[in-house]
Write a structure and sequence with these properties.
About 35% of the residues lie in helices and about 15% in strands. The protein is an alpha/beta fold and about 190 residues long. Its EC number is 3.4.24.77.
Amino acid sequence: MLRRRSLRPLIAATAAALALFGGTTTAAAATGPADPAAAQATTLYYDDSQAAEFRSAVAAGVQVWNDNVSNVHLVRAPAGQRAQIVILASDGWPQANLGPVRPGGQVRVWMGRQGVEEGYDPVRIAAHELGHSLGLPDIKPGPCSSLMSGSTAGTSCTNAVPNATERARVEANYSGTLAHREPADGRVLVDAP
């Protein structure tokens, strides 16, 4: 028992250092035994400072992903922290760079006002575009049960939760050693109907 207590400060310091430099750990590692998947989650920082009226929709979309996958965790970037996902408000259609983004990399999400003006749900848009950042392509045409079906599910669809296949693909994108994974694709995917 004494040995475990003496290791906690070292574990906490290591976790803090990895988080500071864009590492791949979460606070769970500093508190002792926990879910092994959570202990190795990749932390990705997002910057919503330019998301204008979409900040609450972005926060809800982030929460959707944090609630539905375990080996990647999205966190708002504190002042001075470089973000891997930069979120901007735009007047066009929603769009995003295709990931999966890695610590040290960067992609952009454009929360398009045109999509909202056409009647699409802002939280679904945010979760969908963040899905692109995490490496998910569009699945078009598709049903409302598929988050990545985007606009083809219609304006009445408000489902912002990824289905089992989409969750599994994101989990696979962030499993294993990041050094052996491909970087973000980078293509811009525009989600117009």
